[in-house]
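SECTION: protein entry
WANTED: fold as tokens:
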Amino acid sequence: MGKDYYAILSCAKDANEDAIKKAYRKQALKWHPDRNPQNKKEAEEKFKEIAEAFDVLSDTDKRKIYDLYGEEGLKGGPPPGPSQDQPNAANFAGEQGFGYTFRGDPNEIFAQFFKGGMQRQNSFGEGFGSLGGDVFNDFFVQRGGRQGKRATSPRRTQVTKTLPCTLEEIFHGATKKLKVSRDVSATNRAREKVLEIQVKPGWKAGTKVTFEGEGDDIDRGHAQDIVFIIQENKHPNFTREGANLIHNVKIPLVDALTGFKVDVHTLDNRILRISVKDIVTQNFVKIVKGEGMPHSKNNSVRGDLLLTFDVEFPKSLSDSQKDILKSTLPRL
């Protein structure tokens, strides 16, 4: 069964626009991750679900499709089952231009809804640490129309660091240990700590690894998260494109015309002897299947090795050599 957006917002199925907004407001405030530091991961998931439910139910067209065909029909997936009254939901959604996928930022939806003074986040996955105290003062402490004592919410910030990795380390996987120094003035933690990062085979540049609460103290009981971002070092022999590896080879014109063999030293210390029998033109690419990078989700599957070529022309030819070429090469 698909998601019940009405249940997620705790509102009736015949709720009007104002009721939908009130329901979102109540649930978003309840499940905001900054209000749930003890179960932050669960709160983040709930907060995202609440944002998705509001995104659908506050939009007339999306809500109409959802009411008729459920989440499956809205997203263009397999419907619960066609009938005379309810034709194939996936087909209907496709015909109406729906293939809905929630791509919103829950934090940004929250900010736009309340028009509060919080800083925008780049993405949902980057956390909720930029929420300003004014938002919580304005909304979290109001009860029954009376303004209570001003509430404060500790900022949950994060610090980012790059983690340089060689292409070989990303190919094989690696264990990286980094010593971090931190401000521990509000706690009795050790000032220095060694963090261990397991780099998985096939990870891409930009992959983030987060150590929650391992950075500087913010106040008692709260500390920064440290986020390491994978940085792929330049390799002398290969350029990476997704799961594929590109290797460039310089060859003389005679090889480009007559064929040749090239040896490639792989990232796992093998030597591939590759035979090229085609005439190598400017845009020619030789593809060697399965000799690229491993896929991060399935290391048994690998991308391809792509060989590109720079053809080097001779700087000069004798008259006799030119005559031989003229008599040998066809004029196309």
About this structure: The longest helix spans residues 40-57.
